Each structure stands twice: as C-alpha cells, then as structure tokens.
Amino acid sequence: MRLLVLGGTAFLGRAVARHAHAAGHRVTCAARGESGSPPDGVAFVAIDRDRPDALAALDAATFDAVVDVTSRPSYARGAVAALGGRVGHWVYVSTGSVYADAATPGQRVDSAPVKAAAPVQVDDPAADEHRAYGPCKVACEEAVLDAVGPDRAFVCRPGLIVGPEDDSGRFTYWVERIGRGGQVLAPGTPDDLVQWVDVRDLAAWLVDAVAAVAAAAGVRRVPEPGRVAVAGCGLDHPGGGRDRAGHVRVAGRSAGPGAPGRLPRPAVAGADRRR
Questions:
Q1: For residue 124, is it within any domain?
Q2: If phi over 0 gives left and psi between -120 and 50 gives alpha, with beta otherwise, what is residue 36?
C-alpha cells in the first residue's frame, strides 16, 4: 500500500508512519518538519499548508490512502481539493470533542449529538480558549466527507490518546504522580469513567483498517464505549491502587509506572497489509 501521511513527524502521525513502514507499506510523510522528524525509512516531502500551493510538491504522486490529522478546516479543504482525485481512500482522524454532550456515558456514534461545524471564517482550533477545537474538527470531517464521499472516507473519532511521545502531560502526570506515592488530589469522584487509547494501538488499527478499504468506510469512535472504561484511574477505588510489583492498577488491569494499559489491536477482516 502506498500511504501518504499528512504530518507524520509528531505523536499520532509519526506512530502511523512508523507502524505502516514496519508493516511493509510504502510511506510518504508530508509536513513542515518543524515539530519533529519522520520515522527512519519513510520518504519525506516538505510542505507548508499555509501556502496556496501547499501540496504542489505532490502533484505527480498517487496514493492508495492518505491519513490526515489536521484540526484546521482550511488545511482539510485544501488537501481534499488537491489530492482527492489521486487518493484511493481518505482517513481523517477527528476527535471525541466533536460531540455536543460530554456528560452522558455510553453514547453511540450513530446517535450522539455532534457540535455545529465551525463557520468558514473560523480556522483556528485554539480560538475562544480552545472552544473552537471541536467545531473545527467537525468542519474538517464535513470537508472530507463532502469531497470524497462516505464510501472512500474513514472518519475516526478518538478520545484521549496517550503513550510514547505525548508531550501534553494530560495522562502521564497522573501515572507519574501516583508512582511517587502519598495522597493525591484528583478531580471528580472515584466513580467517574475515564477512557483512553494508546497511540500505538490507534496507529496500528488505522493502518490495518485503511488496508482493508471496504471495511474502513464510515465513522468510528475509538475506543467504542466500554472498550476502555476505567473508574477513578486507581485513585481510592476498589481494585485500584498499587500491586506488589509497585505497578499502578487501574480498573482491574496493571500497567508499569509511566505506561498506560494497552488495548488489544482490533482485527479487521480481509486486511491486506502489503498491497
């Protein structure tokens, strides 16, 4: 499979490129290259998506699939306009932040209400103290689905992504803090549900899904409700705490200090990993 990763130099995009290359696919990363470097062994094309001719360097190229993680609607629109006719399948990594109701657990992707898309004049996901993030992602989803159609598009809505090269500290802070021992001041209550997905599992799942083109179309929430639902993150909760090896125990499973519990990689029927 010839795979284009728009990005590929940081966190999820880099994990996708790394896994795809390891699986034997031909990978090209297109990015500024300022936030990091692509994995060893993949092709790199320098682009600046702020420019009108941002993807001109890829004019002669065709790909079996593209993975894009942008949160700027103008970037998404520009990419599908420039490449939509030369890419077999389009994967857009959206976010669980597109959902309008963040308080009701157990919602399903086909029935949960979604926020209104950001208007055309709003292109900065950090605007309004980051409240524009979800609407901007919705606008990106719509741009992809409108341009290439639902049969050639795969929209993935992950929740909290954690794991290697995550520089946000949103998850690792708690593991590291609990690892130091003592009383921990935590938000919410021990019964609150917390859901995350390991970046390596998400990357592998995306690559395997896009390799099985027919199975990948549509909109997916990752993880689906109940796949990883942990109570209290081990903070003062039955079954939580630390085991004899000093590992943080979360909802009945154990993870080494600094490492989140990993999901089993979902099997995708008919995946051709080396097409």
A1: yes
A2: left
- Give 24's Cβ-side CA count (13 Å radius): 6
User: Residue 126 and residue 71: Cα distance in Å, rounded?
Assistant: 10
Burial 193-211 (b: 16+ CB within 10 A, else e): ebbbbbbbbbbbbbbbbbb
Q: Does residue 169 form part of some domain?
A: no
What is the rounded CA–CA span in Å between residue 179 and residue 188? 20
With contact defined as beta carbons under 8 Å apart, do 248 and 178 qualify?
yes
Backbone φ and ψ for 149, nearest 5 degrees, come out as 85, 155
- The CATH number for 23's domain is 3.40.50.720
Cross-strand pairs, 196: 160
Three-class SS of residue 87?
A: strand
Alpha helices, H only, 67-156: 73-83, 133-148
Helix (H) or strand (E) holding 242: strand 241-242
Give mean pLDDT in consecutive 10-residue pieces for the chain, a chain of 275 residues: 95 97 96 92 96 92 95 97 94 95 84 95 96 97 95 91 91 90 86 86 93 61 45 36 34 33 37 33
State the residue range of the domain holding 40.
2-160+198-225
| 270: Cβ contacts below 8 Å, ≥ 6 apart | 212, 214, 215
Residue 90 host element (H or E)? strand 87-93
* Number of domains comprising the chain: 1
pTM above 0.90, yes or no: no
Query: Could you tell me which residues come within 8 angstroms of residue 128 by beta carbon, excluding any fewer than 6 positions away?
Result: none
Q: Please give the Cα distance from 3 to 64 (Å, whole number).
A: 6
In a domain, 185, yes or no: no
Is 237 within a domain? Answer: no
